[in-house]
Amino acid sequence: MFEIIKPGTKIDFMGRRRIGFLFSGVVMLIGIISLILHGGPNYGIDFAGGTLVQVRFSQPLELDVIRDALKEAGLESSSIQGFEAEGKGEYLIRMQTSSADLGGLSVTINDALTKRFGDKGFEVRRIEMVGPKVGKDLRTKGIMATILAMIGMLIYISWRFEFRFAVGGVVAICHDVIVTIGILSLANKEFSIPVLAALLTIVGYSINDTIVVYDRIRENMPRMQRERLEKVINVSVNETLSRTLLTGVSTLMVLIVLFFLGGGVIHDFTFALIVGIVFGTYSSVFIASASVVVWENKFPKKKR
Question: Does the global pTM surpass 0.90?
């Protein structure tokens, strides 16, 4: 049977945990600084309110040409994102406006494009409108969903394993979410409902990867009672490393294909998942498992 990591590998992951903590701290700090400089996440219309219009033209166009057409209608603040679809030019036009303006905004955009390109030059494929109050409510519920997911994980792992393992798992989840949001901010990606769904998916993936490692630690603890917990965790991480890498790489292969070929609609969704899967795989070793070692050193159990 093919194995990426040969049996008997003895990589000292826990001995390098401080390097992992330092790397994660730097990445999170850069992301937090980016969020501060940008005034928070770049909320899409799902959370900030506004109008999204998806338009397909008979041929790809320069963004400036479309922007000029909208500027003539007083819509110069529109955000335009383009992507090719079946050899034609497809674009997402976003406008953040007050609820009083939402009703006629899509009509204004349609009239501006008709004036420049004619009735047959384009096709409006999708129109979405979200009021600012609805967007705020969705944002609040999204934050609550993430927090409740983490609390649920804390309770589940405490029941199945021990509290110190639960702390490590939740620390790893928080790490993955913060890093992903920070990198989204650095890349100036929109924070939308699909991105929130990606974050919740990352939470599930990360904790699943962590549970696999925790299961092996629990199996090894009875037969390695005389060994320090740090060595038990090192052995367990090395034994599950092949499975961890195979799962991560196979998942990334699918996501990379979706990122390049899936179209602009799911572009931010797949980008968030790629970042989350990479750091979720990393955190199951250098954050979740290492946090258990730190907890043990601070609050040692008298007898395992």
Answer: no
